[in-house]
């Protein structure tokens, strides 16, 4: 009993010391900021502490995964929302001087909220006000600041040209700073590759507070931030993007199929068809659990939406699908022609006549959720899909989704070392298992998290191996984490790092060691320095 009391007392004392130290750190940080900015009033309205009445809304409103908005979630001592790029170097220098970790947020969509949460004294640099986008139609390029969203970008491109596009995420409220630095996949991936494949220049603030472009940062760092996660290396301020050609009209469809309509057989057939289709078409699947009166012995069914983007006309798409995937039963009434910009709204379930929605960064998809991701490199037998779909009839899965994204196309032709994102040739498709729950279960989500882990475990025989691959933009700290304090070894970080980056992880570590040897830019899954 005495030992237990002693340990409890020691823990209390350490926590008290830490809280006092944290308070001192942030007060010293604020003093440093006021000294660095000769006209502190120019930035004072951009600085938020827990004493500000708007602190909570500034902190919580961008966080997409509501799991990390509870009262018990660690909060930053300071949030800063710079509205000029030149304001960021002094922030970095003051954070270094006062030993405060920095979290960099451009959109708030990190699945584990690592852009908003830490377990030590920290501040958040929220780039929400750095949203400028300039499009050069003649050069087919665009400069986009890191706080702009994918929807902002799509709107501004289409505003200037109906025949230019950018291959990026389906979601329209993704912050470009984080999304592109993690890779950035979307509906044009099979035709043009990832968003990061089309970055031709970038602006970053490094650990020494220098604002660097591609030439001044060097090719190693430029390589690393295009798919390796920019927050390990500095603060991404802007990207220069190579735009791509798109027809004035594209064709889309979105048709549902249930278990009662041979969904399992369709899934099995899809894996042979979708990765081998012409690169002009991307055919995804998103399955949800729905109420049903048609299922014997159950009141729910699994309903899958087969949805596609084709960069061509409706008649050609229909002929292609009827030849390559007749089992789907696609008919002329299922397909619709529209502009590429309208398709970005269509795939988000939004009215295609209202493109100004793309300028609204407020996400409507916030939820309590957990997700795990797999890559599949060999076809799954039909019995494998049968077992997977059965899991979705368990009680904990009533709000869950199952998604499939095909690879192939140009992804097979880009080298796995071209950028840090390695998942190229040899991958048939990506599969997501996502569990959701309501606010009533927010304090005890364990059964839903366990269910997702069970689905992930079930897929072990069918998933990629050595390593079992994952995608950085679908962050998963269940794969492994760095030490909260102290040094993290290469071996420890490799546990999760190889899953995201495969052989490219080693080069990322070397770049990190060169540009940030003291590991200032660090978080639970940041690239470690060898120093």
Low-confidence stretches: 1-21
Structural class: alpha+beta
- Strand order in space, largest sheet: 15-12-14-13-17-18-16
The portion of residues forming beta strands comes to 15-25%
Shape: globular
User: Termini, distance in Å?
Assistant: 42 Å
How many distinct helices?
A: 16
Kindly provide the radius of gyration, computed on alpha-carbon positions and rounded to a whole number of angstroms. Answer: 24 Å
Task: Report the major sheet.
Answer: 7 strands, antiparallel
Mean pLDDT: 94
Briefly summarize what is shown.
The protein is an alpha+beta fold. Helices cover 31% and strands 20% of the residues. The longest helix is centred in the first third of the chain and has 35 residues.
What does this protein look like?
By secondary structure, this protein is α+β, with helices and mostly antiparallel strands. It is built from 16 helices and 18 strands. The strands form 4 sheets. A 7-stranded antiparallel beta sheet has the order 15-12-14-13-17-18-16. It has a 5-stranded antiparallel beta sheet with strand order 5-6-10-8-9. Strands 1-2-4-3 form a 4-stranded mixed beta sheet. The chain starts with a helix and ends in a 16-residue tail after the last helix. Mean pLDDT is 94; it is low at 1-21.
